Amino acid sequence: MAFAKISQVAHYVPEQVVTNHDLAQIMDTNDEWISSRTGIRQRHISRTESTSDLATEVAKKLMAKAGITGEELDFIILATITPDSMMPSTAARVQANIGANKAFAFDLTAACSGFVFALSTAEKFIASGRFQKGLVIGSETLSKAVDWSDRSTAVLFGDGAGGVLLETSEQEHFLAESLNSDGSRSECLTYGHSGLHSPFSDQENADSFLKMDGRAVFDFAIRDVAKSIKQTIDESPIEATDLDYLLLHQANDRILDKMARKIGVDRAKLPANMMEYGNTSAASIPILLSECVEQGLIRLDGSQTVLLSGFGGGLTWGTLILTI
Ligand code: ACO
Question: Which domains are present in the chain?
Answer without folding.
Answer: 1-169 (3.40.47.10), 173-193+202-321 (3.40.47.10)
